[in-house]
Design goal:
Length: 63
């Protein structure tokens, strides 16, 4: 379990470092973006689903 947490932490750090280059992940079809006057709302539902599936698969392989 500890190895899994360290691995997830490392993946999150790497993702943060390369987020600018992986900009396609933040603009997937299905992500909700509302921009009106001084109001911005962004809800990345498709991106969250993809990350959830990735971590579920990763967890299955770590067991």
């Amino acid at each position: 379990m500890n190895k899994l947490l360290v691995l997830i932490g490392a993946i999150i750090i790497l993702f943060g470092l390369f987020y600018e280059k992986l900009s396609f992940l933040g603009r997937l079809p299905g992500d909700i973006y509302i921009h009106k006057n001084n109001f911005h709302f962004y809800f990345p539902i498709t991106t969250m689903i993809i990350f959830s599936l990735f971590f579920i698969i990763l967890q299955k392989f770590m067991q």
